[in-house]
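Record pair follows.
FIRST:
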Amino acid sequence: MSKNKLYSIAGIAAVVLVVILVSGLFLKRKNGSDTDKPVYKVKRGDLTISYTESGTIKAKDQTIIRNEVEGRSSIVSVIAEGTRVKQGDLLVELNANTLNDQKIDQEIRVQNTEATFISAKENLAVVENQAKSDIDLAKLTLEFAKQDLEKYISGDYLYSLDEADAKIALAQEELSRAEQTLKDSTQLAAEKYISGVELQTDTIARKKCAIDANLALKSKELLEKYTYKREVAKLKSDVSQAEMAMERTERKSNASVIQAQAELKAKESEYNRQQDKLKKMNDQLGKTKIYAPTDGLVIYATSAKSNRWGNTQPLDVGSEVGEKEELIYLPAGDASKAEVAIHEAYLKKTEKGMPAIIIVDTMPGKTYFGNITTIAPLPDGQRMWLNPDLKVYNAEISIDDNDPMLRTGMSCQAEIVIEQMKNVIFIPLQAVVRVGSEPTVYVKKRNDFEARKVKTGLDNNKMIHIVSGLNDGDVVLLSPPLKSAAVETENRKLLEQRTQNSAGAAAAKPVEQTEKTITPPPAATEANQSANTETSNAEDMKKKFENMSDEEKEKMKKQFENMTPEQKEQLRKQFGREKPKE
């Protein structure tokens, strides 16, 4: 058995013993008769199931005035609370000295960025113009290169070719004439008509004409095989170089234009950003003076919130307020609502549309009626931060009556009606105990009381609805014997069932394993000793109560009867949940 389980058993035994002694032993009369115990006669009647929560009165339709100035600002002037204002009246004026200084600095920044923006715009125009000029020049160079190539192929080369052919034809003609002359001279020299010198001269002339004719042929061959190909390749290269130069020029020009455009865009964005900041500062300066958007009655937000939290600084001249902080409420009309915080214990029972009865603390005797309109889906974070164990859900109750005397910030008590039952059987909540897992009451039968199981419904912390099990006229015991009440919950039953299943599984193991002696750990031994000590102390307490005088028992009885159900529950928690100190 674990240490925590032993502590739990010891604590439950203690609370059972204390409750038995207080509710059973001390409630006995001197003669010890059960008929003298407090009883309740069952009768039919109307039962209202409800609970009460504290809240605050708020205007149903109201304009909330907030501080729209960034950061924290101090109040220079504020209209008096309770003043009725018209639309456009000045409500609050905040300190604007810092914003004015920031505005002057911002105006200088705007002027500087504007000058930079204009310079970037002019630079873009220059870059675009230069880019157009460079591209046009590159295109012209390419066009000239193409024309030179075409001119050589279709013009210069053909001209050179014709000129070479002409030179060949002329040289061949001169060679033919020289050969004829040499032939004539040779015949004449043989007949001794000319001298040998003249023959030699004609021979040389013929050789010269033959050489010229050969040179003319070689020149044409060089033109066709080498000069033409070289010139065409050179001119084509010039065209290709011009094309690549034009592409480089276009890319470089486009890059220069894009860079200039990006710089202009950046300068323009910076200029616009600084202008927006200046516009925002002017807007912030305008918000330092807060005017009434509608007619209404001035109610400070701090006055309305102080009833709930009690730690809000009053709204006054010199007070610092933060951005989006609520400053003033301007209720519109006389319609009101109640804001309440519903404890999580009642959340399951509460729904929208349920009726509520509202009592305002400052108006005793006056009662208002309404219905729940909204319930928050999540618990109030601020209250949960202040007390992590407290979880409440904010709800709004619409008040039917439009009473001008209801003012924002008034404290109220809202009784939320869960159900109104007609002609039902109900008994005090203290008369019902659980025996096992079923609600049980003790009904008077002759001179004794017998246990009877009943089926219960809703309760209002005082009375509980009995669905079945009791009849009109039955007499029930208001202080049932707690020794018969169950101390075992469903979870404990499940735990016992699990333990039994584990024991059955252990029995199915081999004999040599189950027959081994199991030595409890030291922690379990100490827990058993603590449980035994707790039981011994409880027995001593019982003996002490039995030795009390009748006057002391009567006094204890009255004290127990005057306890509220909450106090009794607290007593059970105190004796049943606290672990013994080690």
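SECOND:
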Amino acid sequence: MRHFLTIFFIFISVSIFSQQPDTTKINFLNANRFFTTEELGPENKIFVGEVVLVHDSTTFFCDSAIFNSKEKKVDAFGNIEIQRLYNYYDTIFIYGDTLHYNGISRKLTILNNVKFLQDTTELTSNHVDYDIDENFGKYIGGGKITSGSDTIISDVGYYYARTKDVFFKKDVVVKSKKAKLYTDTLKHNLNTRISYILGPSEIYNDSSYIYTEFGRYDYNENRAYLSKHSRVISGEHTIEADSLFFDRANGIGKGFGNVKITDTIQNLILKGNYGEFHNENQYSMMTDSAIFIEIENRDTLWMHSDTLKTFIDTLFDYNDVIPFRVIYGYHHVKIYKKDLQVKTDSLVYSQLDSVISLFGSPVIWSEDNQLYANYIELSLADNEPKEMNMYDSAYISQKADSGQFNVTKGDFVHAIFKKSKVYKVSVVNNITVVYYLKDDKDSSTIGISNLTCDSMTIWMKNNKIDLLVPYSGPKGNIYPPDKVPKGKDKIPGFMWFEDYRPYKPEDIFIWLKKEPVKKEDTVEEIEETEEDIND
């Protein structure tokens, strides 16, 4: 490589044209031969062999050159080397086979085997246009920029030497040690190593895939800030949102607006307007219109609450490690399935044993049956209700007629489901039953039964009580409809929650202000349940 300082010293001490400053004058310092031809005219001077010329702080080397002194243009050929000094300390080096330079506009075009060097940045192409005053370069027909461990390829590139900003167009590929980006339009800063995405783009690395149409990617921090049709696929999870933040180094994603997190393996979906995803423990959180969807072939479970959380926990069983998912719903929970609906304050759903723990006066609807208590555990099998335990003031009821309800109350209820319908019910302690007897012909009320006992078994058929068997000293009477003693046609504390029942998936978002909810101790109960699961 020629030495710029030596050439610069020669330029100061020896000028074959003029000692007066002239920013448009091109000075030739060396050539083995110098001549003109009649064919080209006297204004075109030909220099051959070890040619050196200087224009201000830019020095040109080549094998031969034609200089038009009238138009201040240079056409140079063979072993082109350009040294451009700027900012008093920084130098740009440009190499190529052919050069076309305009000394008035101070713009050049260099062709074939072009190499552009600045600090640790190298640009290679076969066609580069460069504006010396603006320190701005453009390549067309394909080019590559290498900076440190990063390589960027595109058909067209615009390079700003002062700021180290580069605009890339058409078939852009960014390669770093930790990620690859494919797009058609990109702005990239070589100092900050931040790519500004301006069109449909894909980013790949060992553990994740990103698609977006607008945003930026920080290669130093391995972080993406995305918007417009953005999604991140990490392992078996996909997160989509209006705006996305993804920290690949820590495996953390955050979504804002129309967020959707999908578990493609277990067919689980979380939706809302703010969500988070962590690779560690496959943790997801959703709030602001949060909804949880579990997809099954025969039915789909829809659940809404103020906040939803889900993660993978593990159970250590001798030498075996069993992973399982846990779902939490905090406050204003509603669930809709075709065969089952739920309203409660909060819940915990462990897929280890497929048990849903319901807190805060939960209500469950199954066909014509309404079941509620202070605390309920519902077991599922193949995403269908299998059995249920109801604790503390448990009520089972069916509507007999307008304003008439068959109600069974006890301290504890165990219900068994068959084909998603209540089949058998066992009730224990402090049992009270109110039952309306109907005429088979016209369904008119012919009597009202009021019964108490300590234990009872109820068999259901077609969602109606088929057989009721009381145990342990049953007491009670059947009263004619017009001679029922006061209070014997009702059970204290019973409520009918028909207005709060979700009849379709959209209804899970409706929570009436008057809906009664006992919130005392629900948070503590959930925390205790979480401790039990972790144990």
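COMMENT: The CA atoms of residues 502 and 508 lie 6 Å apart.
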